[in-house]
Design goal:
Number of domains: 2
Radius of gyration: 20 Å
CATH topology of the largest domain: Aminoglycoside 3'-phosphotransferase, Chain: A, domain 2
Bound molecules: 2-acetamido-2-deoxy-1-O-phosphono-alpha-D-glucopyranose, magnesium ion
Largest sheet: 5 strands, antiparallel
Number of helices: 12
CATH architecture of the largest domain: Alpha-Beta Complex
């Protein structure tokens, strides 16, 4: 961990410190740093986020707006390095950033009660609500067309076209199932064309483990992982909550009989989200609520399957079929959401 200690010096964190891996994100390398104080240190994945300065600038814009309009909002702002920069680049060109560790907090990978669903959804809703009123044009996309379902479908087709025959063979069933949901792309295109959705500053990565819960109150302390804080539609956040809350099994579960749709959790998350966003969303926007979970489960499934077809170039994997397992899992979930919502 010598390299990590060198980086910490640039952020004025001196030894002795203990460094350990943190969290279950698929993109960055995250460490918990324990010394005199506690920190979260992250190495940003520069292959995914090719313009990390946009992350820093979006986060700063949000932070400044919140400081002025909602000073109590617990926004996780980075600690600048010796030169006052939010990101510090190492010799290999990787950007690093440092946060204070929020004590007495925890994350969950699965939702186990209606209360948790309500609180987490309320937490994500609170972020968008607090940023309602900020000038959206001050923000840039950190990842282009991130939740553009039509584009993601095209990427899947491209990956399929270029995949090795044995890889296609291994995923034959999933490919056929995926194609059968293409109607969701048409629905998405129609919805966007109608223009009833409002461009807002969204979190855009609202898996349940991106909410920090307070250990004592068990309420949402704050939303974390703000790399994709950028313009988007509310269905992106609501949909990814549906995707990651309603089933008791995560996207990593190999046994798809464990993937189930819990209606009571769905209702609780909707209630929590609308508790904050009920007066922010227009009546027209609210008509898209049932589409949210379908769209976001499908988009993630397409991305996972495309990554498998490409040979696992995007998501971290610990075994070769992991992206196929994830896609299979998400297909089952999608089937359930389409049937029940
Ligand atoms: C990635 O960074 P992490 O692990 O929270 C991905 C999300 C996917 C998610 C699937 C920047 O999120 O879009 O929903 O994996 N983030 C990026 O688990 O691609
Ligand atoms: Mg992320």
């Amino acid at each position: 961990m010598k390299g990590v200690k060198e980086i910490l010096k640039v952020f004025r964190v001196s030894e002795p410190v203990e460094i350990s891996p943190l969290g279950s994100g698929h993109i960055h390398k995250t460490f918990k740093v324990t010394g005199e104080k506690k920190f979260v240190l992250q190495r940003v994945n520069k292959n995914v986020f090719t313009r990390p300065e946009i992350i820093a600038s979006n986060n700063r814009t949000a932070f400044q707006y919140l400081k002025q309009h909602h000073p109590d909002y617990p926004f996780p702002q980075t600690i600048p390095d010796l030169n006052g920069n939010d990101l510090h680049y190492d010799d290999d060109g990787f950007p690093w950033r440092l946060y204070s560790l929020i004590e007495n907090s925890f994350t969950i990978d699965e939702v186990s009660s209606e209360q948790e669903a309500f609180e987490a959804a309320k937490g994500f809703g609170q972020l968008t609500k607090s940023l309602n009123g900020v000038d959206v044009s001050l923000f840039q996309p950190t990842l282009d067309r991130f939740h553009d379902l039509a584009w993601r479908y095209q990427q899947f087709e491209e990956a399929l076209h270029n995949a090795k025959p044995e890889v296609v063979r291994a995923a034959e069933k999933e490919i056929a199932q995926t194609k059968a949901f293409e109607f969701l792309v048409m629905e998405y295109n129609d919805l966007i064309k109608k223009g009833s959705l409002v461009l807002r500053i969204m979190h855009n990565d609202t898996k349940v483990n991106n909410i920090l819960f307070d250990s004592i109150s068990r309420k949402a302390a704050c939303a974390i992982d703000l790399d994709t804080l950028m313009p988007g539609y509310f269905i992106y956040d609501l949909g990814d909550m549906v995707r990651t809350f309603v089933s008791p099994a995560t996207e990593e579960e190999k046994d798809i009989s464990k993937v189930v749709f819990r209606k009571s959790i769905y209702d609780a998350l909707l209630k929590g989200y609308l508790f904050e966003m009920g007066n922010v969303l227009s009546e027209e926007e609210k008509k898209s609520i049932p589409f949210a979970g379908k769209m976001m489960t499908y988009i993630m499934e397409l991305r996972m399957l495309a990554d498998f077809l490409r040979g696992n170039t995007y998501y971290h994997v610990t075994y070769p079929e992991q992206n196929l397992v994830r896609a299979r899992n998400q297909l089952r979930l999608l089937e359930l959401i389409v049937a029940k919502v």
